Here is the input.
Amino acid sequence: MLEKVTLKKTIRMILFLVPFAVLANVGYTIWSSDDANLPELLNISVSWLVVAVFFSLAPWLVASALLGLWARFFQLPLVRRDIFEVVLANDVAAAATPTAIGGGYAKLGLLIFHGTKPGLAASLMVIGSLEEYAVFAVLVPLTWAFYPPENINVAEIFFKFFPFRSLQSVLIAVGIVLVLFILLRNNTAVKNLFNRLMHKDGWLAKALIAIKKTIGDFRAALRLVAAGGKLLFLFNILLAALQWGMRYSVFTALAFGFGLQPHPIKFLLLQWLLFTLMNIVPTPGAIGGAEIGFALIFKGVVPPGLLALSVSAWRFVATYLQLIVAAIIMVFIEKPEKKPKSEPVDPSGYTAIETKHAGHQP
Here is the structure.
């Protein structure tokens, strides 16, 4: 169970560490920029800066709406404060873990803490991911076909960003695991250990029972969506498009503020590419890799004298400011007592809720 004190300690630790990241960000800007270009930061258009901040923080409201609609569909015991807390925790945790891992596990934990069954909480995570994948699968190829960014070689950027040496390390690690598996699979001691773990009183057998129950709840939740949530799923895809459209437009607004004339769709695609590359960076919040990726992608788009300044401004507004605001809000969100688990699905996979949603679309 999540403890209020533990959560607040974690948030306060993040608040303590973020200023150091910001100072490093400022230091990089001063070191990389000519003195003559630093005043450009003070000359940025305030109105466009406000737009950039809005694009950075407003997706929380859209994400809350997405989760709230599904909570209403599944009749979950979540109030608005709980939903907003889950959304904020997702972003705060994402800043403390590699981008590929993200904050989904914090979201899962808080959903369970607020009374959602584990299988249903997992299904909410998967449904949210499917909505996002649908947005990217449709909009990115379509917009790239009509508005391809100039001077962008995706394969070249990828291999610069993810050197072959790193790929070799991954392949070597996979090879070692395969060799160990082949050598140990017929080992008597390993077999005896496996049998002890799989005994009906063993912890692994009990864990498998819990996993099977979670999978059953997960499958039942997806059947509910298939029976009565198709229109809601399609509507949420539109909301997800709005959410990520704003996230991928933060630097577009900053570029306008610096006096550039960015093409909104082309810059959106470049920022999508940047966020995609950040998924292979193993550092928490893609620290370091995000800045390198930005420089690689926008090198021929942003004037050289503004590149370092643009990196720092984008990173601060899109990440550090977002993290500071989220952490401060979470410190003041009061944690309620743990709620009883919701029961939207029974062992057979059907309940009165399923009957309610099977006959009509929401």
In short: Confidence is low (pLDDT under 50) at residues 1-5, 345-355, 358-362. The radius of gyration is 23 Å.
